[in-house]
Specification:
Blueprint (H helix, E strand, L loop, with lengths): L2 H7 L5 H7 L2 H17 L6 H25 L1 H4 L17 H22 L2 H22 L6 H5 L1 H15 L4 H24 L1 H7 L4 H4 L2 H20 L9 H23 L9 H28 L1
Helix pairs in contact: 2-4, 3-4, 3-9, 3-15, 4-6, 4-7, 4-9, 6-7, 7-9, 9-10, 10-13, 10-15, 13-14, 14-15
Length: about 300
């Protein structure tokens, strides 16, 4: 243990460490898609209940992230981009992260059930358990398909938001779930291409580590096609209007062009992976704009 780490370990965790456990940057996208699912629903919740529902989505996402870091503290310590997190940096005991995650998760599910309905609470509970048990504990260290199956965890928020407002599940939120589910592999594989050495060092079998960069690049392109189909589908199915439809076609055309550029790339040096970094950066913006366009379309056209 270095002097810096030992000094950090001697300090008690403060509120910033607990906030870091919730992965607030990742939570932003989760909360946004959940909010859009709620706003796109045909039923309007009172503002206080709507706020509570989205708060529960945020707390549930934070709980899942905390439990993920509790379980993965060993491999986080081996990767440059995660070594500064509270647990591998020695600023917090693992039991503290475990208790925080479990308490936050249970509170979010119960509050969702009491404030809105128990269908939304059940889906929230499933999303937390799916991320922690199925993805983090079962899949991540065992298969290069970890992010494909585990991506379902991040696709639940639109379903939760819709269910909180309506007490039911319909075709549109299922298409939104499919969109996020199919978006997750291209998004994370683009990232994993230029941080492949981190995953290799930690022994995580991400696709670029196991199958190589060329196979991963083609997989990114292949997953982009059903993602685009799910994204555009609400328009021809009559579930969204022309505002959403035009934006969806344009955004998915750009995503496809960027994916083709990644598939054609042959560089092996992370610093030279401009196409991969462009796709990763655009993929985050893409999801924000797609969901935002849907809400605007539904509110203006109905």
């Amino acid at each position: 243990m270095t002097t810096t780490t030992a000094a950090a370990a001697a300090l008690p965790a403060d509120w910033r460490d607990f906030l870091a456990l919730t992965k607030p940057r990742v939570m932003t996208l989760v909360v946004f898609t959940g909010l859009c699912g709620l706003l796109a629903a045909p039923v309007r919740l009172p503002p206080a209940l709507g706020f509570t529902a989205i708060l529960c989505v945020a707390l549930g996402a934070g709980a899942a992230a905390a439990l993920n870091q509790w379980y993965e503290a060993d491999i986080d310590a081996l990767m440059k981009r995660t070594a500064g997190r509270p647990l591998p940096a020695g600023r917090m005991e693992r039991d503290s992260a475990l208790h925080f995650g479990v308490g936050l998760g249970c509170f979010s599910v119960v509050l969702m059930g009491v404030a809105t309905n128990w269908l939304a609470a059940a889906i929230l509970a499933v999303s937390i358990l799916f991320y922690v048990v199925v993805y983090t504990i079962w899949l991540k260290r065992r298969t290069p398909q970890n992010i494909v199956i585990g991506g379902a965890a991040g696709a639940f928020p639109p379903l939760i938001g819709w269910a909180a407002a309506t007490g039911s599940i319909d075709l549109l939120p299922l298409l939104l779930f499919t969109l996020v589910f199919m978006w997750t592999p291209p998004h994370f594989w683009a990232l994993s291409l230029f941080v492949r050495s981190d995953y290799a060092r930690a022994g995580v079998p991400m696709l670029p580590v196991v199958a190589g960069a060329t196979s991963t690049r083609w997989q990114i392109l292949l997953y982009t096609l059903p993602m685009a189909a799910a994204a555009i589908a609400p328009w021809p199915l009559g579930l969204a209007g022309p505002i959403y439809g035009v934006i969806a076609v344009a955004l998915n055309a750009v995503f496809l062009v960027l994916s083709i550029a990644v598939a054609r790339s042959r560089t092996t040096e992370p610093k030279e992976m401009a196409a991969e970094k462009r796709l990763f950066g655009f993929s985050v913006l893409y999801l924000f704009i797609m969901f935002g366009a849907l809400v605007v379309d539904r509110l203006l056209i109905g």
